[in-house]
Amino acid sequence: MASVHESLYFNPMLTNGVVHANVFGVRDWVTPHKMALLVLLSELGRAGSQLGLLERRRLNRLLLPLLQGPDMSLSRLRKAIEECCPHLASSVHIRLKLMAEGELKDMEQFFDDLSDSFSGTEPEVHKTSVVGLFLRHMILAYNKLSFSQVYKLYTALQQYFQKDEKKDGADENEMELTNPEELDGKMEKEELDGPLREEEIACSGPLSQKQAEYFLSQQASLLKNDETKALAPASLQKELNNLLKFNPDFAEAHYLSYLNSLRVQDVFSSTHSLLHYFDRLILTGAESKSNGDEGYGRSLRYAALNLAALHCRFGHYQQAELALQEAIRIAQESNDHVCLQHCLSWLYILEQKIFDSCVLLEHSVNKSLHFGLPYLASLGIQSLVQQRAFAGKAANKLMDALKDSDLLHWKHSLSELIDISIAQKTAIWRLYGRSTMALQQAQTLLSMNSLEAVNVGVQQNNTESFAVVLCHLAELHAEQGYFAAASEILKHLKERFPPNSQHAKLWMLFDQKIQFERAMNDGRYHVADSLVAGITALNSIEGVYRKAIVLKAQNQMSEAHKLLQKLLIHCQKIKNTEMVIRVLLSIAELYWRSSCHTIALPVLLQALALAREYSLQYLASETVLNLAFSQLILGIPEQALNILHMAIEPVLAHGAVLDKGCAMFLVAKCQVASAASYTPQKKIEALESAILNLNEAKAYFAKVDCKEQLRDVLYFQARLFHTLGKTQERNKCAMLFRQLHQELPAHGVPLINAFK
């Protein structure tokens, strides 16, 4: 189930996707790239009405990222302009060529002519517009240059143009050896409006203040909305180090470095960057300027709070508690209720690691509502619902509580919390065994559009909620035997959440679990055993449970029993009721295989009591099926059939294909065992009904490629056909049985070996 407190980190950079850079020591200066942009603006003004409406609209959309972004090569700039207006790109190239191959006075004349753009009653450019401000900055920066600096700029322009000419020559030689259609395809794939590539930023040189702000804003927004389009962690850190080399006190660069270190789970670097961020924030006086005398103290308490959140994220609960106490102390001294509510939320998370406590959470929700903090209040309600779900509260009450929180979300347009709420509903329905309802909620979230405004080409929903829902969707498809569809969903997850992203562990675990189930169904226990290590690394409890299942399948009963007993004690201690029930069912199966049928009954009754107490309907139905199997073994098939009718409906409605097959197989076994006391005519009808149920079970087992169960069904069918005197059908089942029996290891094929 999704963690609902992932968004409690204080993030001063991401205010509507804009980075507020208060200090930066590098001013704007004239570069060859900016001169090329000035030429573009000059030619755009000359073209005037000659440009079509569509071309002008494309150029206007292109201008803003060009003016704000870092410098780029002339070839890429030309390519960008050509896509909007080929004629204008040719004019810009010719104008630059004349300037680069001419004399220094040509460049001087060009800057003198730029001032004419502002003259007249109807100037081409308004002084306060984005383009006007850029022109004025460049003119001012050029006028401040000394003669030697002007000469260096002219030399740099010549090198800038010559480098492009050399590249064009190399490209022409390459085109002679390359299919033109392939080359056009490559050019179409380039996304000029998208995030900048690593090599382009690396060769762009030092950034000005505006470029640095734009770069940090873009990368921070991508880390939040679509991590796959952000720079790789190593490349982003390299660029941040270059920024900090020019100005070590650039606080926002330290904070982005902190976020980048969190991506790769680097404890040392993330702590180092976080502390540097708040140190620089205090030293530069940025906070005190915007918040008066409270700025200094505000930075200190939020620094302590972020440090507590960081330690909690990495599992350092003692250090987190110490940092949280410091944050609470400073917040109380400053009477900062907002900070105190954040502290209270994190205090609940820390206390939850030790014991279950609803008191803190309920108090936090009430206080958050009182102080007008809907985000925190909703997070508190989500956590309460999650805790009540594990405590076995009725689903209708939980859904009512989530409905109340949804009202807060829509009222305040809290898009992220709407996603979390739907993911919670999906997980709750999965917990209660209602796969149809879980599927409906998952589809609801996937078909929604985000309320947040993001750039074109950026995925809107690359959050933990979507990762959780997609993982549940993959597992639901795998359970129904649609392995190809599950693989497609997992492939999409791998593309959307790369292995180095923070939510990749979710799909990694589900991928390993699906592979494990397929290997177990196929009887490849050595493959399943090799997957246990990967599952254990991601979830230790699941890993130990899967190891016990493999040992049980390999008939290593004593080792499996020891492992399950240890796991049972641990799960009872941490109150993982769902796993406790699954472990009890596995222990009961071990007792059956050891012919201790009477000992299995108390274990199953204990599991049934827990499942009903905690409203785990599907697990309760599965436990009843196991009880029916026990009654069949103990010689009371009629009673087994009676309780089967109570439990089989939820299994057929919401269960996995394998469970459906096992249930129908069990019904057939009970029908055959009950028919022993029937009259001949009634016995024949019972056996024919059992054969029909076996056909249904066989279809289910074939869907998930469960060969061992298929072999058992075929053996059972062959015996029934023999009893009914149907020789042709018997021989067909016998032939299919023999083929499977030769494929699979021979452990003997008893009529009744286990429920699953």
Automatic annotation (TrEMBL):
<dbReference type="Pfam" id="PF21371">
    <property type="entry name" value="Apc5_N"/>
</dbReference>
<dbReference type="Pfam" id="PF12862">
    <property type="entry name" value="ANAPC5"/>
</dbReference>
<keyword id="KW-0597">Phosphoprotein</keyword>
<dbReference type="InterPro" id="IPR019734">
    <property type="entry name" value="TPR_rpt"/>
</dbReference>
<dbReference type="InterPro" id="IPR048968">
    <property type="entry name" value="Apc5_N"/>
</dbReference>
<keyword id="KW-0963">Cytoplasm</keyword>
<comment type="function">
    <text>Component of the anaphase promoting complex/cyclosome (APC/C), a cell cycle-regulated E3 ubiquitin ligase that controls progression through mitosis and the G1 phase of the cell cycle. The APC/C complex acts by mediating ubiquitination and subsequent degradation of target proteins: it mainly mediates the formation of 'Lys-11'-linked polyubiquitin chains and, to a lower extent, the formation of 'Lys-48'- and 'Lys-63'-linked polyubiquitin chains. The APC/C complex catalyzes assembly of branched 'Lys-11'-/'Lys-48'-linked branched ubiquitin chains on target proteins.</text>
</comment>
<keyword id="KW-0677">Repeat</keyword>
<protein>
    <recommendedName>
        <fullName>Anaphase-promoting complex subunit 5</fullName>
    </recommendedName>
</protein>
<dbReference type="GO" id="GO:0031145">
    <property type="term" value="P:anaphase-promoting complex-dependent catabolic process"/>
</dbReference>
<dbReference type="GO" id="GO:0070979">
    <property type="term" value="P:protein K11-linked ubiquitination"/>
</dbReference>
<keyword id="KW-0206">Cytoskeleton</keyword>
<dbReference type="InterPro" id="IPR037679">
    <property type="entry name" value="Apc5"/>
</dbReference>
<dbReference type="GO" id="GO:0005680">
    <property type="term" value="C:anaphase-promoting complex"/>
</dbReference>
<dbReference type="GO" id="GO:0005819">
    <property type="term" value="C:spindle"/>
</dbReference>
<dbReference type="InterPro" id="IPR026000">
    <property type="entry name" value="Apc5_dom"/>
</dbReference>
<dbReference type="GO" id="GO:0045842">
    <property type="term" value="P:positive regulation of mitotic metaphase/anaphase transition"/>
</dbReference>
<dbReference type="GO" id="GO:0051301">
    <property type="term" value="P:cell division"/>
</dbReference>
<keyword id="KW-0833">Ubl conjugation pathway</keyword>
<keyword id="KW-0802">TPR repeat</keyword>
<dbReference type="InterPro" id="IPR011990">
    <property type="entry name" value="TPR-like_helical_dom_sf"/>
</dbReference>
<keyword id="KW-0539">Nucleus</keyword>
<keyword id="KW-0498">Mitosis</keyword>
<comment type="pathway">
    <text>Protein modification; protein ubiquitination.</text>
</comment>
<keyword id="KW-0131">Cell cycle</keyword>
<feature type="domain" description="Anaphase-promoting complex subunit 5 N-terminal">
    <location>
        <begin position="30"/>
        <end position="167"/>
    </location>
</feature>
<keyword id="KW-0132">Cell division</keyword>
<feature type="domain" description="Anaphase-promoting complex subunit 5">
    <location>
        <begin position="254"/>
        <end position="353"/>
    </location>
</feature>
<comment type="similarity">
    <text>Belongs to the APC5 family.</text>
</comment>
